[in-house]
């Protein structure tokens, strides 16, 4: 399956400023598959080392972590000669071996001709631990996310439809209605399947929602196990409580995160470490409220006001145990949850395009779902789950801040009117 990550990896390989690459991201997003496929396509051979399946590997790094010492030993373990610039060295699940992570400093300084990528599922969590000696300034870093809707459509063999969507987005011209309907159907399928590569592959091959739900439940179980395995004992229960509660809070009319909803009398001091763990693990992301619309937005965020969204839509639907047909037909019983679910979808597409997302609220309660910096401009984004797209909040925001334009995401076709760019939900990946 095509992943946009491949383009980044190819540029990394050719860069004269290349450093060892740390590829991080939540479990099951396709990191191992991407780097192995990249190695197979772009190198003469691949030397792959997994610290989870081969715990004895750790012993190799105990005595000496200089490349001069490591390369002959790693060549022997891999059963092939590691050659500069021709072999891709991969360390997988590197969070299990602190010394391997530290060795990247010496690969950068003493052996820059060796191409090395390390991948880890909980690197953010591991690196935040005090004992980790992180090779600051000596590595390139990249985060990998689940597949976005464009990658999902390409996996479904809809390359021509993707091109049409991109063209209509650029020109603000409506899609032919048959194609618009087809793209909306794919969007709803994506809400159920999500972007975990294994789930997408199963859907492409079987169209069996029950099989996919089983896979999603397994991934959720792996996440729960990680919360126990890579966490302080007194934080495990809090982390699980917080994670379970995130999906509940997305069903509220006001999706701003409230600690007191996790448990009666819950406070920030009790749960903020748990929230941080979930963010560092890549399972969720925080979107902060901005108090002023000025650059840089980060300077004006309210650290006490934020929303939390999960990283994958399919896992969100699995966690809520939503039936596939209810989402395909957007039944009325889902009305309370639709808004939060669609906001979550848009946030995930924006993050996959490497935007830092914020939201805005006026003193009188007008709210803009997302504010991003796009091509140097601060752009408000209004999200509607249905075709009721009257947006009083957007009018208030535009009157106050005079943005270059605004984006309205809904089920309506492409268009541009009164400074508002109308974008169908399935085209969020174009932003």
UniProtKB/TrEMBL annotation:
Extent of the signal sequence: none
Residue intervals of the AAA domain: 18-153
Superkingdom of this protein's organism: Bacteria
GO molecular function: ATP binding
Residues in DUF4143 domain copies: 225-385
Xref: PANTHER family: ATPASE (PTHR33295:SF7)
Protein name: ATP-binding protein
Species, as recorded: Schaedlerella arabinosiphila
């Amino acid at each position: 399956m095509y992943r946009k990550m491949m383009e980044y990896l190819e540029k990394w390989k050719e860069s004269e400023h290349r450093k060892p690459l740390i590829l991080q991201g939540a479990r099951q997003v396709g990191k191992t598959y991407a780097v192995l496929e990249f190695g197979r396509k772009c190198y003469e051979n691949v030397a792959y080392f997994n610290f989870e399946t081969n715990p004895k590997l750790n012993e190799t790094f105990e005595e000496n972590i200089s490349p001069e010492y490591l390369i002959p030993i790693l060549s022997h373990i891999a059963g092939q000669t590691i050659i500069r610039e021709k072999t891709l060295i991969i360390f997988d699940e590197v969070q299990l071996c602190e010394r391997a992570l530290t060795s990247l400093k010496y690969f950068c300084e003493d052996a820059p001709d060796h191409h090395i990528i390390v991948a880890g599922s909980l690197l953010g969590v591991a690196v935040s631990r005090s004992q980790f000696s992180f090779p600051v300034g000596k590595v390139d870093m990249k985060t990998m996310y689940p597949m976005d809707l464009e990658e999902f459509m390409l996996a479904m063999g809809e390359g021509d439809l993707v091109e049409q969507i991109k063209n209509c987005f650029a020109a603000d011209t409506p899609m032919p209605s048959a194609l618009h309907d087809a793209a909306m159907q794919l969007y709803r399928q994506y809400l159920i399947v999500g972007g975990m590569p294994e789930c997408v592959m199963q859907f492409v091959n079987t169209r069996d929602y029950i099989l996919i739900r089983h896979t999603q439940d397994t991934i959720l179980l792996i996440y729960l196990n990680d919360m126990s395995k890579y966490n302080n004992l007194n934080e495990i229960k809090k982390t699980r409580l917080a994670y379970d509660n995130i999906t509940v809070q997305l069903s509220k009319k006001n999706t701003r995160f409230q600690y007191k909803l996790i448990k009666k009398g819950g406070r920030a001091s009790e749960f903020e470490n748990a929230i941080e763990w979930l963010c560092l693990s890549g399972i969720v992301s925080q979107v902060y409220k901005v108090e002023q619309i000025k650059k840089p937005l980060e300077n004006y965020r309210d650290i006490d006001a934020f929303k939390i969204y999960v990283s994958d839509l399919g896992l969100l639907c699995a966690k809520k145990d939503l039936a596939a047909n209810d989402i395909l037909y957007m039944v009325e019983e889902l009305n309370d949850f639709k808004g939060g679910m669609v906001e979550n979808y848009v946030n995930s597409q924006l993050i996959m395009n490497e935007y830092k997302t914020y939201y805005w609220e006026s003193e009188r309660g007008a709210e803009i779902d997302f504010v991003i910096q796009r091509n140097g401009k601060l752009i408000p984004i209004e999200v509607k789950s249905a075709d009721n797209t009257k947006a009083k909040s957007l009018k208030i925001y535009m009157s106050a801040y005079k943005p270059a334009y605004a984006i309205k995401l809904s089920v309506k076709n492409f268009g541009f009117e009164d400074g508002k760019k109308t974008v169908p939900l399935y085209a969020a990946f174009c932003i």
